Amino acid sequence: MSSQPLSSPGRGSSARPELSTEILAFVSHAIDFASVELRKLNLEIWNNPETKFQEEKACALITKWLESQGWTVSTGVYGISTAFEARFSVAEGERTVCYNAEYDALPEIGHACGHNLIATSTLASAVGVSAAMTKFNLRGTLVVIGTPAEETGGGKYIMANNGAWKDCDIVIMTHPMPDFSSAQMTTKASWKFRAKFHGRGSHAGAAPWDGANACDAIVMAYNGLALLRQHIKKTESIQSIILEAGKAPNIIPDYSEGSFSLRAEDSSSVEKLRERVIPIFHSAAAATGCTMELFWDALYEDVVNNIALANRYTEYMLSGLEEDPKDFLDPSAQPKSAIGGSSDFGNCSYIKPGIQTLFKINATNMPHTPEFQHAAGTDYAHTEALRAGKANAMVGIDVLLHEEFYRAVQMEWEESMKARGRI
């Protein structure tokens, strides 16, 4: 094969070029050749789970491997010590393709969301695209961004607020699922917060009139949210737990605290729900004579799926990588339990066009369960992570090679942002 830059081997410059079996075969071989090394990395992360913002071993493992492959790596980027950014290029070009890696685990049950597989699949894509860039002198920049703390920490929210993804043209990642695959992940927007009420302690029997009951305040807020639930949309939800509300019944509690979570169909909807919730807490404080503080965590925006990217991924999975069509679902056919969650990848999709694809790992239960944690460590799951990595690699290569395809991707994203009032 020629070492000159490729324009469109075996396909035209249209927004929907034919599949390049030549490049797909080359990328697949490069990823298969790296499979043994990637499996070692996969198991090392799986066997050493680290929770949000503590992913030091995983970060070091991945970055040292990328450096050994000739990548330029920076760690502690975009406001998080365990985040990284790795870059690869062989020829200057206009477009930059980014793949996200996740590697944080859940408390107590380890990699029960399969983030070891997300890292593995991302590295597979990095191997495939970088090999193609080197072999065919493809113009452009390839980026891998390591994103800690997806599980409740909102790592991508923090990183986005510190400038991540702004110089990228597309952002791609993937996620394991129990028994189906898809080119799109449908999520809800989510916003978690804590409430703290400060009252005034006193003797509950001798002088209750001297007290301001913080327990009453948080119970009022809890019940207020329960009443609000009957007046919100079916696509919205509110979850609440009381963490602390006193130590003894004969003491008027001077402090209480709760944790709460809001979910809605999209970011605009969750903001409107937030505006309805806040007055409940102010009212509870006023009614009980307490003061109140609200602490809002990271906003997990809904994933804005790019159909142009998703369709291309589907073509490669079904036509070139032998994915079983019966396991490959349209988002409308996905189980309801699979689309009730949230992902901070949504924050990326509001910055640049992107997709978060899904691949099956034959788990007998949903993510965040011991059964899923077990499946995430199997050879089968590793093989499927590589398959998804190959398709994602080809989507990225198409963006580098085909101006018209990229323009279609960008135009669709701009229309999505206009519809959401972002541009």
UniProtKB/TrEMBL annotation:
Pfam families membership: M20_dimer
Domain of life: Eukaryota
A single MF term (Gene Ontology): dipeptidase activity
InterPro entries: Amidohydrolase, Bact_exopeptidase_dim_dom, Peptidase_M20/M20A_hydrolases, Peptidase_M20_dimer, Xaa-Arg_dipeptidase
UniProt domain Peptidase M20 dimerisation: residue ranges: 187-280
Sequence similarity: Belongs to the peptidase M20A family.
Protein name: Peptidase M20 domain-containing protein 2
